[in-house]
Design goal:
The complex is a heterodimer of chains A (about 110) and B (about 325). Chain A is mostly helical. Chain A is built from 4 helices and no strands. In chain A, α1 runs antiparallel to α2 and α2 runs antiparallel to α3. The chains are: A mainly alpha (about 110), B mainly alpha (about 325).
Chain lengths: ~110, ~325
Amino acid sequence: MSALDYLSAALLLLGFIFSLSGAIGLFRFPDFFTRIHASSVTDSSGAVCIILGLALQTNFDLVTVKLLFILFFLLLTGPTGSHALAKSARHGGLLTIPECQEKAKDGVS
Amino acid sequence: MTVLIDLILLAMLVITAFRIIYIKDLFSVVMLFGIYSFLCAALFVTLDAVDVAFTEASVGAGISTVLMLSTIAITGRKEKLSLHSHTFATLIVLLTGGALIYGTFDMPLFGLADNPVHEHVAPRYIETSPTEIGLPNMVTSVLASYRGFDTFGETVVVFAAAIGVFSLLGVRGKPTELLAQEQGLTQHKVLRVVAKISIPLIILFALYVQFHGDFGPGGGFQAGVIAAAAFILYALTFSLRKAVGVVSPRFVKYLAPVGVLLYASVGLVSMLNGANFLDYNVLAADPVDGQHYGIIIIELGVGITVFSVMLGIFYAFAGQVEKANVQ
């Protein structure tokens, strides 16, 4: 294995860890906004790591360029999707946990 | 390793199917259908059927999700409670499922070289299509030339679906005055900017898929759906009125038969040249060149019809949604 192979393996492993932590965060975090935070941040960083790791496995030809196009498109659409989702939730009146607690306190007093 | 991936994907497929049955919220069901289609696409990729995977991803996960969402916008997102008992239906489903599983015992084992599917016409396609048609992507050769008649039938089916939707819902020639107020996602500035960047890229990719289908995975069906998705994205982010201003429903309505007629006219030209319907060999002096011309033109016909039908169905559904919102 050459140095590039090791680097690619490390990147793929890092991407795997990112994606896995995103999935765990999606299940374990308490409310919508923390969950979408977990999944969106780790999705983007995981995608960067995995696609760069895959690009190092190619012969640096058209396939590499295609992978970079996919990366560009993912970086463009992934955060946008999460942003739109969170903004729509906000627009629809969903509150974060501290806001909910404050509202409950106001209701009692 | 492949077996492990297959098993995981199939297990996820079964779990998704069960969730679809038990969830009552139709919005989640539509999302799960999208996931189901993507899992199918991944399975097709592991079977090396990239063309089919491409179609499944673009049609199953892309366009049909949007169409089902626009249906939900009209009908409401809760499933109706059914009061009568399900015993009889369950019995029939169990019987049919049991018969189907019993039927699989007679099927040949997966992946054997002497399975019937590998002994019929497939060897001839694989042996002679490089010299007879000469396209690098053999799937396109089979789909567009050897099985050109079947593909013609599929295109006509897509067109017939459009006729059904248009005659039920109707496509208005121009937007009514009631829709004059500004709509679309005016709040989502980021979404609009990103949509503006990505729409030209999506259309460019659709053209690449259309005309690169002879060399790699892709072709008219996928390209038409992707191009329609670009315009649907425009309609969703910027308002239906603006999208109708770019590609009017009347234009879409006239464009849908153009693709079918283009396809059929290739067949008629080959008949006029003294060959069978859709026999491309006679379209040029060299039979291989004739095959290439024929395949390019009929793929274009398929692409045009699929694009206009998908966009037309979306217009019909979205028009109903807007009408319901106005009232």
